[in-house]
Amino acid sequence: MADAAPFLEITNLTAGYKRGLPIVQDLSLQVAGGEVVTVIGPNGAGKSTVLKAIAGLIVIEGGTIRLSGSDIVCTAPDRLGQFDLSYVPQTANIFTTLTVAQNLALAARRCRTAPQERIAAMQELFPDLSDHRNIRGGGLSGGQRQMLAIAMAMIAEPRIILMDEPTAGLSPKASQDVLKVVRSIAEDGVSVLLVEQNARLALGISDRAYILADGRNQLDGSARDILNDPAVAEIYLGGRRKGAA
Ligand SMILES: Nc1ncnc2c1ncn2[C@@H]1O[C@H](COP(=O)(O)OP(=O)(O)OP(=O)(O)O)[C@@H](O)[C@H]1O
Ligand SMILES: [Mg+2]
Q1: Do 16 and 49 contact (CB within 8 A), yes or no?
Q2: 77-85: which pairs have CB atoms within 8 A and are 24 or more residues apart?
Q3: What is the pLDDT of residue 104?
Q4: What is the number of the ligand 1 atom nearest to the C-alpha of 165?
Q5: Which domains does the chain carry?
Q6: What integer pLDDT is reported at residue 239 of this predicted model?
């Protein structure tokens, strides 16, 4: 159940890859505790750039990014764990030459307490990973890789996870499985800020959504309202659903 107070609060963010050339402009966005919030929008809209800004990877020219009330702008990416934040980038999110067990052990180095217990907890949460513990990351299916990346992000018990297109390149079944896991993470009280191209599927497991275009807020609202708005569906969700009135 979502907690009404915003855990992540972005206000009037302007950020980009080069000073003076902002990609994201005047963007505001909030994620409450235990909420799944999806960011959708056309290619090049700036969705991944928003996540990189929160993760401390690019130049912030204006605005604030608060986690639990603390401003994290200017925090080095490797120190964001102290604010209970994990980031799962779209690619290169696991070590392909290491086994599943080695990937989890590396991620567990960020655990504050009892890394072995956290590894065991992740193997329980993702039984398929446990079955493949001695397989190298490069030998996993796309869905298993994403599950491993999510497990590595979850291991240090974050309060919020940023995920960039976890279903990219996956089959419809694997996409559904990954998004089911995302929903279950939120049910346990962890907030998720999700970027997805697979907009309908993502909205189906989200509480709220933001639509971005040209690096700016276009629209936001409950995921259900956005899914059911015919004008939004026409412009941003690839037309009406088959069989919809
Ligand atoms: N490393 C970079 N250096 C300079 N510009 C970049 C860089 N990465 C992205 N951009 C530019 O920033 C803009 C937004 O890109 P971004 O990757 O955030 O879009 P997106 O909404 O995630 O798109 P997609 O749906 O294709 O993933 C684009 O114009 C892109 O060319
Ligand atoms: Mg992107």
Answers
A1: yes
A2: 80/55, 80/56, 81/110, 81/156, 81/158, 84/157, 84/158, 84/159, 84/160, 85/54, 85/55, 85/158, 85/159, 85/160, 85/161, 85/162
A3: 94
A4: 27
A5: 1-84+160-245 (3.40.50.300), 89-157 (no CATH)
A6: 60
Report the alpha-carbon distance of residue 42 to residue 110 in Å, rounded: 35
Model pLDDT, residue 72: 87
Please tell me the predicted confidence (pLDDT) of residue 75. 80
Identity at 79, one-letter amino acid code: R
Nearest-CA residue for ligand 1 atom 6 is 17
C-alpha of residue 214 to centroid of ligand 2, in Å: 13
The predicted pLDDT at position 45 comes to 95
Atom of ligand 1 nearest to the CA of 45: 21
Averaged over successive runs of 10 residues, the pLDDT of the chain (245 residues) comes to 75 96 97 96 95 94 93 82 87 94 92 86 88 94 94 93 94 93 93 95 96 94 93 75 46
DSSP character string of 45-79: SSHHHHHHHHTT-SEEEEEEEEETTEE-TT--GGG
d(CA 160, CA 150): 12
Q: Ligand 1, from 17, 197, 210: best to mutate by most atoms within 8 Å of Cβ? A: 17
Find the 116 Cα to ligand 2 centroid distance in Å.
34
Report which of 76, 6, 18, 89 is spatially closest to residue 47, judged by C-alpha positions. Answer: 89
